[in-house]
Automatic annotation (TrEMBL):
Gene3D superfamilies: 3.30.230.10. It holds the Pfam family Ribonuclease_P. GO terms for biological process: tRNA 5'-leader removal. It comes from the Bacteria. This is Ribonuclease P protein component. RNaseP catalyzes the removal of the 5'-leader sequence from pre-tRNA to produce the mature 5'-terminus. It can also cleave other RNA substrates such as 4.5S RNA. The protein component plays an auxiliary but essential role in vivo by binding to the 5'-leader sequence and broadening the substrate specificity of the ribozyme. GO terms for molecular function: 3'-tRNA processing endoribonuclease activity; ribonuclease P activity; tRNA binding. It catalyses: Endonucleolytic cleavage of RNA, removing 5'-extranucleotides from tRNA precursor. The keyword Cytoplasm does not apply. It is an enzyme of class 3 (hydrolase). One of its GO terms (cellular component) is ribonuclease P complex. NCBIfam families: rnpA. Signal peptide: none annotated.
Length: 133
């Protein structure tokens, strides 16, 4: 299970990561990553521009956040949940290696339904290497 502090839950945050983040596609999944820039650090509450600076990022936090998208194209409910569980397990082991405050959206593609956990881990590692270089 992914800790609650590391879950991307709000629809707006998913949309922001997908729209503004970088994308790396692999045969079984697509990873969208939004890594905060130094300019996106929060400012004092009395500053009138505080809202405009922080709105460009999902919740600014030192914890990395991850969300998953597994559509019906992957398979029926049983298959989708199996894929999501495998992805959660694979991502949980890689959380410490992510930059602080980063947000990821991992979108499973149809071939993920028949992939093993090792295949998903290899695709995720390759996508993360490409995004975080």
């Amino acid at each position: 299970m992914l800790p609650a502090a590391n879950r991307l839950t709000r629809s707006q945050d998913f949309g922001l990561v997908v729209r503004r983040g970088r994308r790396a596609g692999r045969p079984r999944l697509v990873v969208h990553a939004l890594v905060p820039t130094p300019a996106a650090t929060p400012v004092a509450a009395d500053d009138a521009t505080a809202g405009s600076r922080t709105s460009a990022q999902p919740t600014l936090d030192v914890q990395s956040k991850v969300g998953f998208v597994v559509s019906k194209a992957v398979g029926n409910s049983v298959v989708r949940h199996r894929v999501s569980r495998r992805l959660r397990h694979v991502v949980r082991d890689r959380l410490p290696g992510l930059p602080p405050g980063s947000s990821l959206v991992v979108r499973a593609l149809a071939p993920a339904a028949t992939a093993s956990s090792a295949d998903l881990a290899a695709d995720l590692d390759a996508a993360l290497r490409r995004l975080l270089r």
